[in-house]
Design goal:
The protein has 493 residues and is α/β, with parallel strands linked by helices. It contains 18 helices and 15 strands. The chain starts with 5 loop residues before the first helix and ends with a helix.
């Protein structure tokens, strides 16, 4: 089984405005070299995520272990080599200086070598990035797993701008970045405390954002109990777009809920292999505990509306989207409003999901009706060039799996959007950051919507809105019924 880079390459094609062949050749000729200070807190976690994120692109990748006193531990280096091999054994992580063309150099630490383009470091639950010529301040706190994932995702985002060759005006190379997803208006490292244990928490969706949330929870060393809901299996295209999972997991067609359960080593996971609607019915019959907090990583409006029908005390929804799929957002939803139906308006066009899939891909409705049959080369016949390009990357997958696909739906409209781990991880960091802030009382007050485009970076002074409930929404019109359902589930325990 060979690694499928179609989704990560597609993101670059849309961002750079070039065809897939051109973009892939550009990436294959753009080496990236990593260095790090082995004495840095959370350096292992940061490098682990960064190496995986960069290996999910077809770029030459190398790592310099360094010299004492900051040399990387041999066991860590072996782990990083194994991480890269699990994603693509044909493109190993090279140890030592790369040959040939001068690479893009990235550093994890506050004192980068002089030829480094961008350096990053976790500071508490946040990240600090500096381009060449800009010094780091004194760090406020040791890096956490959340800070490590955010730092790695942002460093990968800086690399993406270069290796994809984004044109002027389509990105911003911010020379100084200081951001904390727990307290977006504060400096990183402020008010860092151990995260609480998970109690009556449900994760809805085990896709790109859901696996990102799982990665952050694992590296934060969170304990407790978590119900994970997803109906799909982990497949080959997911290897280069999700935050966890290997080619071996894809070959085994491991259910996504099992993939996440295996990664969350300190959490007692209740894997629920089904839809959100199935989980609601299980809560209603008492076979699944009613969650008080819901973390969302779903990819369709309908699924998000179903998630709201769990009527949890707090729902934290993460999303990716925007013009090319690089925008990340957090929606804080309450049973009294604003709820996810306030944020995501229903599609009243009357078109079924099958009809929308037909309009997007050109696949005949009769073929879509045979949903369990995998797509083959024969299905490309009769499609135009653009439709063939879109459908080709899903060959071998059942049609039914495409109806709510993040790569086809994007969660908010019918436009095609690809996946990229470094983007989904930043959405996941917003979700976990909000969970920490709300569950510990660091942030109170009205529900927030936080959004930024990863090509331009977070702007803490411009990225947060406070939403109010929509008067016509079910959370307002059916408030008494929702309250009754919540009380019934609460008394049932």
């Amino acid at each position: 089984m060979r690694t499928d880079y179609s989704r990560s390459v597609r993101l670059g094609c849309l961002a750079a405005g070039v065809d897939e062949t051109t973009l892939r050749e550009r990436m294959e000729g753009s080496p990236i070299h990593l260095t790090a200070d082995g004495r840095l807190p959370a350096v292992a976690e940061t490098l682990g995520v960064l190496v995986a994120d960069l290996r999910r692109w077809p770029v030459p990748l190398s790592l310099e272990p360094g010299r004492e006193p900051g040399r990387l531990d041999d066991a860590l280096v072996r782990h990083l080599v194994e991480t890269a091999a699990g994603i693509d054994p044909d493109r190993p992580l090279r140890i030592g200086e790369p040959p040939g063309e001068a690479p893009l150099r990235l550093h994890v630490g506050t004192e980068p070598p002089p030829d480094v383009a961008v350096a990053g470091v976790p500071d508490g639950n946040g990240a600090r990035l500096r381009h060449a010529g800009h010094a780091f301040p004194r760090l406020n706190a040791p890096g956490t797993g959340l800070g490590a994932v955010l730092t790695a995702a942002m460093l990968a985002g800086e690399a993406f701008k270069v290796v994809a060759g984004l044109p002027e005006g389509k990105f911003h190379a911010t020379p100084v970045v200081d951001f904390c997803p727990v307290l977006p208006g504060e400096q990183p490292g402020t008010a860092v405390a151990p995260p609480p244990a998970l109690e009556r928490v449900l994760l809805g969706g085990g896709g790109a954002i859901g696996t990102g949330i799982a990665l952050v929870l694992d590296l934060l060393r969170v304990s407790g109990e978590l119900t994970v809901v997803d109906r799909e299996v982990f497949e080959k295209p997911n290897v280069t777009s999700y935050s966890i999972g290997t080619l071996a997991d894809a070959a085994a067609l491991l259910p996504k809920v099992r993939l996440i359960a295996a990664r969350l080593r300190r959490i007692e996971v209740n894997p629920f292999h089904g839809t959100i609607q199935d989980s609601i019915e299980a809560v209603d019959t008492g076979t699944l505990p009613w969650p008080r907090t819901v973390l969302g990583g779903l990819d369709s409006i309908d699924a998000r509306h179903d998630l709201q029908r769990l009527h949890a005390d707090l729902t934290l929804d993460g999303s990716t989207g925007g013009p090319i799929g690089t925008t990340v957002a957090l929606h804080e939803a309450l049973p009294t409003g604003p709820c996810l139906r306030c944020y995501y308006k229903a599609d009243h066009s009357g078109r079924s999901a099958e009809q929308r899939l037909h309009e997007l891909t050109g696949l005949p409705l009769a073929r879509i009706a045979r949903g369990q049959e995998p797509l083959t080369e024969q299905d490309l016949q009769g499609l135009d060039d653009q439709q063939q390009e879109l459908v080709r990357q899903f060959l071998g997958r059942p049609v039914c799996g495409l109806i709510n696909s993040a790569e086809l739906g994007g969660g908010t409209d019918d436009a095609f959007r690809p996946s990229a781990a470094f983007v989904a991880q930043q959405a996941a960091c917003l979700v976990v950051g909000a969970w920490i802030a709300r569950s510990t009382g660091l942030i109170t007050g009205p529900a927030r919507r936080i959004e930024y485009d990863t090509r331009f970076g977070p702007r803490p002074d411009q990225m947060t809105d406070h939403w109010t409930p929509a008067p016509e929404c079910a959370c307002q019109k059916d408030a008494d019924l929702i309250s009754h359902v919540r009380e019934t589930w609460r008394t049932r325990g």
